[in-house]
Specification:
The complex is a heterodimer of chains A (about 240) and B (about 240). Chain A has about 240 residues and is an all-alpha fold. Chain A contains 15 helices and no strands. Chain A folds into 2 domains: about 110 residues, Orthogonal Bundle (Rna Polymerase Sigma Factor, Chain: A), CATH 1.10.1740.10; about 80 residues, Arc Repressor Mutant, subunit A. The longest helix of chain A has 20 residues. By secondary structure, chain B is α+β, with helices and mostly antiparallel strands. Among the domains of chain B are: about 45 residues, no CATH class; about 80 residues, Immunoglobulin-like. Helices cover about 40% and strands about 15% of the residues of chain B. The chains are: A mainly alpha (about 240), B alpha+beta (about 240).
């Protein structure tokens, strides 16, 4: 199937004078110049080539981290830039141009992932520490909002910054663990998965009342550890 | 409380402003109502915190060394330039013959004979102990030298990097808990007590050396190296367990 090609659409024209004039201009200035009605079609393209050329590597890196594959990343980056090029008129100058570009790119990547309907590993499953039996289920919207606020506070106090980021990207934005590892440049051996495991363990310990965590006759370590968190020693004891 | 409330806490909420609004409010003068409101929201919203973090990362546009080649190929394609990687030429007669199964079996057989002969010869010669592999990095190029140490070395060792003023050594567990961290000018260090204590448990440790210049800027890094005590030579009692 033929794909619309960003590089074809923005095929370079050789007007080096314009480039030298636009080189020092800010992104916002370039857009303003491109919107000038007196500008010829070629001149406008020239300016936009310069503008979007500044974002090639930034978009490429993001797409590469998200997909983990050079070919898919190139396709995704093409689509993102093409979409931004075609929707340039929607930028209203309320935010920086770079923020608008980021917003276009991020939304496109999320929609693309949704269209492919590939749910990340574990994202559709339960968070594995259902405590509805202990606290009851709020029916009213106000109560629910208050509960969500409490959960947000819990996330930010119980988890460290990286754990909170990993959990938000995985459970909030349904991003795969591999993509999160690349996106956050995690250098530990098991990447985002290690943070998910430790965050779930911490959240479970923070959500359940202390009396339930330390049930009579059960050691703290055994109960406090999540299913995934049991190490070599824990499994040894169970045998 | 149910799981859905917790899941919702990770997602964008009805009160979350758009990323464009967030970013523009953060550029307002300090103390202005919009900025204060934005900071208050950020302080309690993990979703918006990560959004701002990713936006800053995007604006910074830093490319890791392992991404450089792929990014160059993608940007070349975006700019409409010819691909950097040339298409592979059609295989010649030698390559076609090499790929036939019969030829591969013949080569494998010949290699096996040579290896057996070499093994017998080495048995006859004086045995020389093999040095354990040492992670190294030099001149900015990193080399992954993941090793499960059997020979029980007792020190960290790395190759000097030109222009390095000092080296930052970090040892951590796989769940990223730092158990040792310090700066050195030498390129070797006997295992500190913290490391020795953890190694005795058999836990996998990761260690990383970063070369810093006089200004404290990073010149090169070794990447995470594995350090694990195997119990191959441990007492039979332990093996029986």
């Amino acid at each position: 199937m033929l794909r619309p090609s960003y590089s074809r659409e923005v095929a370079a024209t050789s007007t080096e004078n314009t480039i030298s004039q636009t080189g020092d201009a800010s992104d916002e200035e370039l857009v303003a110049r491109a919107r000038n009605d007196d500008l010829s079609h070629a001149g406008r393209e020239e300016i936009l080539n310069e503008l979007f050329g500044r974002y090639h590597s930034r978009v490429a890196v993001w797409c590469l981290r998200l997909t983990g594959d050079g070919n898919s990343a190139a396709d995704l980056a093409q689509d993102v830039l093409l979409k931004a090029w075609r929707n340039l008129d929607s930028w209203n100058g309320q935010s920086k141009f770079s923020t608008w570009m980021y917003s276009i790119m991020r939304n496109h990547c999320i929609n693309d992932r949704a269209a492919r309907s590939v749910r990340p590993e574990g994202a559709s499953s339960s968070l594995d520490f259902d405590v509805s039996d202990h606290r009851g289920r709020p029916d009213r919207q106000v109560e629910r909002e208050s509960e969500i606020r409490r959960m947000k506070h819990l996330i930010l106090t119980a988890l460290d910054q990286t754990e909170a980021r990993v959990m938000t990207l995985h459970y909030g934005q349904e991003m795969t663990l591999d993509a999160i590892t690349r996106l956050l440049s995690l250098t530990n051996l098991s990447g985002a998965k290690a943070y998910i495991v430790s965050a779930r363990r911490k959240l479970k310990a923070a959500v359940l009342p202390a009396s339930e965590i330390f049930a009579p006759g059960e050691g703290r370590e055994r109960e406090g550890r999540g299913r995934e968190g049991r190490g070599r020693e824990g499994r040894g004891r169970e045998r | 409380m149910d799981n859905s409330a917790l899941r919702s806490a990770f997602q964008t909420g009805p009160n979350c402003p758009s990323i464009e609004a967030l970013a523009s409010w953060l550029e307002r003068p300090e103390g202005s109502p919009e900025r204060r409101q934005c900071e208050l929201h950020l302080a309690e919203c993990p979703h918006c915190q990560i959004e701002i973090h990713l936006l800053r990362q995007f604006e910074e546009g830093a490319i890791r060394r392992d991404e450089e080649a792929a990014v160059a190929a993608i940007t070349a394609r975006l700019a409409g330039k010819p691909a950097i990687i040339e298409p592979k030429p059609a295989p010649g007669w030698w390559e076609r013959m090499w790929n036939t199964p019969r030829f591969m079996f013949a080569i494998a057989g010949a290699a096996a004979v040579v290896l057996i002969a070499a093994g017998i010869t080495s048995q006859l010669s004086l045995r020389r102990p093999v040095d354990p592999p040492v992670p190294e990095f030099s001149g900015g190029a990193t080399r992954a030298a993941a090793i499960d140490i059997i020979a029980s070395p007792d020190s960290f060792e790395w190759k000097p990097v030109a222009g390095a003023d000092r080296y930052e050594l970090t040892v951590r567990t796989v769940d990223d808990a730092v158990i040792f961290h310090n700066f050195f000018t030498a390129t070797t260090l006997a295992f500190p007590p913290e490391v020795v204590a953890v190694r005795k448990t058999g836990k996998l440790l990761l260690w990383e050396v970063v070369a810093l210049d006089a200004a404290g800027s990073r010149i090169a890094g070794s990447g995470a190296q594995r350090l694990q005590q195997r119990f191959d030579s441990v007492t039979p009692e332990r093996k029986r367990k």
